[in-house]
UniProtKB/TrEMBL annotation:
Catalyzes the interconversion of methylthioribose-1-phosphate (MTR-1-P) into methylthioribulose-1-phosphate (MTRu-1-P). This is Methylthioribose-1-phosphate isomerase. It comes from the Bacteria. It is an enzyme of class 5 (isomerase). Keywords: Amino-acid biosynthesis, Isomerase, Methionine biosynthesis.
Amino acid sequence: MSKHTPVQSVQYRGDHLLLLDQHELPHKMDFIRIETTEQLWNAIHALQVRGAPAIGIAAAFGLSLWANQQKEESDLRTFTHQLKIQRNYLSSARPTAVNLCWALDRVMQSIQYAETVQDAIQLIEIEALTIQREDEATCQQIGEYALSLFQPGDHILTICNPGAIATARYGTALAPFYLAQERGVPLSVYACETRPLLQGSRLTTWELQQAGVDVTLITDNMAAHTIRTKKISAIIVGCDRIAANGDTANKIGTFGLALQAKALGIPFYVASPLSTIDLDTPSGESIPIEERHPEEVTHLAGRRIAPEGIKVYNPAFDVTPHEYISAIITEKGIIFGSYRENLAIIKNQKNLLIS
Ligand SMILES: CSC[C@@H](O)[C@@H](O)C(=O)COP(=O)(O)O
């Protein structure tokens, strides 16, 4: 089987960033050019770049772009103070995915021993490139572990786009399907369309179809029926933040799928890099849930589909309580329960009790 090379959604060019415009997919494959942190903030907020790892990578490069424009600055304290302002600004673009702050903080920490502004500029670029490179290896490893949970011929359901374009490569929850395809292992994916912004129908189907993975699109309200009639053997999803007790925030609709998995007796898996585990957030109740513009619900493809003046509730994420999660699949192993204890162990990279 040939290896498919998916397009890289975040491309750093030193003085600018190219972002695959995820608004335009699957109709057009356009890249937007980013030169300033303001432009990047807008692109993250508008979901032109999206998916927890990808927004972290883009934000890290955003600090590098800004730093590269400070070559005239000679005072390291002033530089660091201004960098922190940029960090705080970018971190406010989206509240739920913890990878955004995680990546920005990694970049901030990378300059703690810098002696000059020139040193700092170089260290920031190295750190941002490292975050991107590591994410590819991380996703591949998540894919290996996730694949070990599936059998050839399995039908697996997913939501949103936890795929290659939401990460440096491979994706999180979609990584096992890329690896299976490379190895000629037959797996079928059912993709929920993921209202309101249709990341499933526009993005997951597009990228899996390009890779030659067998993928079938369903609307979100078809999931329970599909699990029964199409013999779905598992659900696998990505995530935007995992609290210390294992409660997990992911795209709105995920919690409903977890309830369906429990009711219908199939496993519900969460695929997550360690960077998405946030031990400082004790439980799902403390995860900030982004609420977005009502127009995302009242309009479809630019056309109004609801009456003028209707009240709208538009949370972008929901929280799946840990008791509904069969396993959390990370790059360091699979956790099958006792999340509070095991997440702390795995995050601190100690030897695992698990898998
Ligand atoms: C590859 S991680 C997956 C998550 O970030 C993904 O499941 C998700 O919910 C993304 O939501 P989005 O609002 O499109 O950024």
